[in-house]
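Q: Give me a backbone?
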Amino acid sequence: MPTSTSMIPARVNPDLEKERRSASFNVEEFQCWWYGGADKLKQKREIQQELFKDMTEQNTLLLYKSHEEISEIAIKQVLEVAKKLRAMQARNNPGGNDIWPKLFSSSWVWGAMPLGNPFGVQFSMMVDAIKTQGTDEQWERFGKRVENFEICGTYAQTELGHGTFLRGLETRADYDRTTEEFVLNSPKLSAYKWWPGGLGHCSNYCVLVAQLYIDNKPKGVQMFFVQLRDEETHMPLPGIDIGEIGHKMGFFGVNNGFLGLKNVRIPRTNMLMRNAKVQPDGTFVKSPISVLTYFTMLMMRCVVTQDNAILLAMSATIATRYSAVRRQSPINPNEREPQIIDHVTQQMKLFPEIATAIAYQLCANSLWTLYDETYVDIERGDYRRLPELHNLSCALKALCTTDAKEGAERLRLACGGHGYLTSSNMNWITSFIAAACSYEGENTVLLLQVGRFLMKSWRAAIEGKPLTPTASYLAGPAQGTAFGKWTGDWENIVRALQYAATNKVHSAFKNMSLRRKQGQTKAEAANNTGLELIQAAELHGRSFIAATFLAHVTGPAAAERSAAFNRVLENLLELYLGHTTLRHLSAILQCISLSEAELGALQTRLETVLKKLRPDAVAIVDGFDFHDRTLSSVLGSYAGNVYESLFALAKQSPLNQQPVPKSFHTILKPFLKSNL
């Protein structure tokens, strides 16, 4: 089977060739496992070969363009991807399920849209919102037009003054029963929609999230399908104040925008009414469960978790390949400078991030399974899994983006000064991850929500009531079961993390209860216990990640893998569990006793597993099977010709196209001749 790096030049760096030859396992087996089977891997490679085959310009050179040029190039690139995906769909699956919209927002196509996708929100959120929140009639009337790309749209929720706190949104939708219309308004500046991708100048429609009012009485947050621009002229419609929000740290071509509304009228039938409804006479029918309004956000948290696991894996691939090519600082005097990956301190920068990326990918798979099962349950009117999905998606989104951001920065620093160049592509990756820490729920707020869920779960545990599966580990300690003996095996480490999480949950519950007894309101007590709630939520999430990683590596599926590949996964699990234990040793030691010898053994195990992983490191990141176009990095290409690539790209800088820049004659030379 051909690799995804079919653009490999004839010469591959000899150090990388040596690394690949010395691997202890079959890389193709890893690649099939990572993508969920040989068929998926084959499909991914075929799609990327089609998308990338005629791309010639280096992505880094695009950043020399003006802001307006970048916006135009991004639109052209994205529409070219849409055309190619549709053509592939027509060739390979004519008349079958239309899968191209899902691929359009997949990580598989990132390399073809290096400036970002101004229509990404349309296909990742807007389509889903209409499908899950709209009626079948609404899907036929305008949902299919959105999915077919007949119109352009976005999901307009976040406002200038409110983001994660959705109950605080200020955009109003007042029902006028005399005309059977909603009147939409942004009552003040802070109510302007702010941030939606593609809203600036690309969208002519949106799904608008607004507060519904009937007879000036609030009915909660609802969704509305709203036309923003004329379909022929693209001019904003009356009452629409719209534009883009300006230059950002990343996502340069995504065209994030603002939106203000003044007395904009839409038909009653443009409110998405699968769940909540407004009858013609103004009668309001509540949703069977209010959290259904936020189901699209739950889906997006699954997406964010998976995407950021992939972004961290991309960073790890770049830094690991570069570390195998770069030679510096002899370990023994008078010896050749070693590959920097031979320095144990460099291994400690690289290998834990590889393990972390894999851990989050496995958790994202589990989260998607729960999402799909919950979606089926909801269709049957069963909402019992919603709290589990909500809190798990909150925890994983917050922890994955935080860990990926910190990990990607560590990996950038592991590339030394060259990592600071945009041609390394580390800036693109880190800026995308940094943004994810805030959108789809700011991370601190999400962890506080998980903390409140854990307070309810602890109360249920001490009362002997049923718990959700991810909180079930609280039951034993709540009824007085002690941890037992520390043995340090993998299952024991997972139980130790769960026990440490339980201890934090118990402590937060006790202190919150004490504050209530001292006269604080429930909200005041929660605010003043916020630090402990976050600590409990983090440990709860980390114990889930550890348990999930353990289950995937040691579960029944292990019998289907080769012994060599299983050893690699076991080494990665050993590293992840040991590293996580050492990071949270303070919390563990508060409730579990470890001797000095046992603590020393953890450090020894960490150093030992780094040595075990060293010969396989390059092969492991090859297992992620990232196309060179996706990585878009002079430091991380498959061939590894780092210095030649760095120099060639520097020569292409616009400032190097003339031996003397214009500024010398117009600015610098007059100054030098001015006799100051």
Notes: The first strand starts at residue 153 and ends at 156. Residues 120-287 form a domain with the Butyryl-CoA Dehydrogenase, subunit A; domain 2 fold (CATH 2.40.110.10). The first helix runs from residue 14 to 21.
